[in-house]
Amino acid sequence: MDVLDTGDKADGVRSSADLPRLGLLVEWAKKARLVRVVKGRLCAVAKARPVPADPLRLWLRAFDACFELRQALIGARSGWHVESMLFDVYEDVLEDVLNTLYSLPFPMPWPRLRDTVHLAYRSSFQLDGGSDLRHRMWFEHADRDLRTVLDLLDDLGAIERDRGMADPVFLDVDLSDAGPELPADMPPELAELLGVEGAATDPAARERADARREELTAGPVELIRLTELGTRAVRQRLLAVGRDAPLVGELAQAPAAGLLGVLAEDYPPDAARAELAGWITARGEREAALRQLTDAVRAMTFRTRAQAMLDVLLAALPDGEGERLLRTLRRDTRLAPLSLNALAHRELLSPEDMTDAEQLLVLAESLLQLVELAGGGDGAEEMLRAQGPQARDALDSAHPDRAGLDELRQLAARALGTHGARIGRARKARRPSGKSGRKRRR
Questions:
Q1: How far apart are the first and last CA of the chain?
Q2: How far is CA 366 from CA 59, 195, 243, 360, 362, in A?
């Protein structure tokens, strides 16, 4: 055991069951298809002989084998023991934990990771009406097994753990962009975990949520993040199943439109900032690079897509440069509606700061995007009916998308009536003198 350096204690050993670390390593090598048992003897797999000569290939194979180590790692050691909840959902939880770490720009504090996995248990198991003490024991058992898994990943070099203060993003989760339906349909446990205001009315639930927040703010906590090797391995797994897995730096030579589109759809904020900075640096001249980016937005025919691309510039350019750029674009005939809409949505521009003409542009832009999302037809007409007079006001704007306004006018004619659409075109026309202005009966 001293030569193998497995960490097992050799004193008093009577069988392989007394050497759990050695047993794990042997099972690991078998799952990695490096060795196999032939007539009771452990033999090297012939096809795998080149693998140990390539350290990266060997490491990646060992990483993939982690997903098959459920029994060896956290299985019951005897008939006197039972497996934890993690045992039944081991592969799914391991996948989710690694994907979550991959997606985060900050190290994840252990309390948040633990509580997120608890939520997976609640959605996977029908917990009975037993006592809170019994449930707590179940969760603690699963937590110990999860730590065993993290120890394995740490020893492998896939993750690194440190102690420090949790990033403020983990203290409160803002669901304001998730849509109005989400909180209503959200399971109570998720609402409690995320601290959605008003979602958990049970005083005990609120007490638990406060305890979690206290745990994160009282002092340094364990912080967990992927290493570079771990990041590479998780990305390969994501790509293998057809999922998007952006890696900062891979878009340095992408065209401007492609860059902004991918950043809008697939990148978290910090990664988007880093990717955009690298793309601009690769172009050499900053002003020319920014012109390429704004020209890409200008050339986009789909308004919702163009809005998302411009929003990326607002959020990802450093030191307020995005806001300054969009304020400059207020004078750009083509991009003014999009820039005004973005600034207003981020509350960087209030209605009082806009002229009447600009307010009409924002109104028209919002309606055009809603119609685009609705795909025209009955859905768009119903949306316009809900807007009422506002839809008519938008038709008076100087919005540059004249084809879009014509479509909006036709939809308004059907949704609000022909008279309402005609008002949209000539609402400011003065009535002939001597007329009462009363509507005629039809």
A1: 99
A2: 51, 31, 31, 10, 6
Three-state SS at 160: strand
**Contact 229/157 with Cβ under 8 angstroms?**
yes
**3-state DSSP call for residue 302?**
coil
β pairing state of 41-44 and 159-164:
unpaired
Q: Would you say 48 and 33 are in contact if contact means Cβ atoms under 8 Å apart?
A: yes
The predicted-structure confidence for 319-372, as pLDDT tens digits, reads as follows 899 999 999 999 999 999 999 999 999 999 998 999 999 988 988 898 888 888
Q: 334: closest CA among 425, 251, 401?
A: 401
User: Quick one: CA dihedral 79, 80, 81, 82, positive or negative?
Assistant: positive
CA 92 to chain centre: 18
Is 333 within 8 Å of 374 (Cβ atoms)?
A: no
- The CA-atom distances, in angstroms, between 340 and each of 176, 266, 333, 349, 442 are 21, 24, 11, 8, 41
Nearest to 371 by CA among 395, 339, 346: 395
How many C-beta atoms surround the C-beta of residue 19 within 10 A?
19
pTM higher than the cut 0.90? no
Tell me the C-alpha distance between 97 and 114, whole Å: 10
Span 178-202, pLDDT tens digits: 333 334 444 454 454 444 444 445 5
- Structure-token pair, residue 327: 């304020």
> What is the amino acid identity at position 322?
G
